[in-house]
Amino acid sequence: MTPEPLPFVTRLWFAWVCFFRVLFDGAFAGAVHLVADEGLPAAPEPKRLDAPKDTPGDATEVISLREELAATKRKLEAAKKAADAKPAPTHDAALQLLALLQREGRLVDFLEEDVASFADADIGAAARVVHTGCRKALRDHVKLAPVRDEEEGAKVTLPEGFDKAAVKLTGNVQGKGPFSGILRHRGWRATEVSMPVAIEGHDARVVAQAEVEL
Predict the structure, then answer these.
(1) What is the Cα–Cα distance from 13 to 23, expressed in whole angstroms?
(2) Cα dist. 26→21, 33, 102, 156 in Å?
(3) Which of 15, 58, 86, 174 reaches 20 to 30 Å from 153, CA-CA?
């Protein structure tokens, strides 16, 4: 007797049930594996009208399987919620670097100063001091290297699928590449970062302490 084809929705539900049944029931998995290797067994003879009905154990097994499926579904939902609950990003590292630039080069003081009324010579002198200190702080804690090795102004060709996170196209951008153009900026990539370890109780939001002279 040839089995009749099942509708798509029935097959979908049956595949879902069989997946967990095979996963958690070794005997059932062995039977399925045997059928996959040797094919379907011969159809049993139809039951007589006076034959005994299915035992209560069959209904109990179906209920147990449904409970297992429900428990697995709850576990999957809990795992998804845990994965979605990502911790909020911290800004401590950025504030720590800003504090270093302030300590070595008075960067925050310079940026917060109203320089509109200053003479160009005074701004230039102050910028030189800020530049020297900030450059020292940056080089002490962050090692930088150019993204591109060519000299600025050189003609470069970017293949299709180039790293868009490292190279930005400007001007008339059309198509998928390859692209040929002039290198206007080599870019910078941090190759090493070594920030000081903050002591316990340190408030990263205090970029520069207030100073009181006694």
Answers:
(1) 16
(2) 8, 10, 66, 61
(3) 174
| Residue that is written with structure tokens 């509109």 in the block | 116
Question: For tokens 């003879």, what's the residue?
Answer: 45
- Look at the pTM and tell me if it is higher than 0.85: no
| DSSP-assigned beta bridge partners for residue 188 | 146
pLDDT(141) > 60: yes
Among candidate residues 139, 142, 140, the one with its CA nearest the CA of residue 192: 142
d(CA 77, CA 155): 53
User: Cα Rg for the chain, rounded, in angstroms?
Assistant: 35
Tens digits of residue pLDDT in 57-99: 556 777 777 888 888 888 888 877 777 776 777 788 889 999 9
Q: Kindly state the tokens that stand for 52.
A: 């005994």
In the chain, at which residue ranges do the beta strands (DSSP E only) sit?
A: 142-146, 155-158, 179-182, 188-193
**Residue 192 DSSP code:** E
Task: Count the residues in the chain.
Answer: 214
Q: Taking 90 as the threshold, does the pLDDT of residue 107 lie above it?
A: yes
How far is residue 9's CA from residue 26's CA, in Å, rounded to a whole number? 26
Q: Do the beta carbons of residue 138 and residue 103 sit within 8 Å? A: no
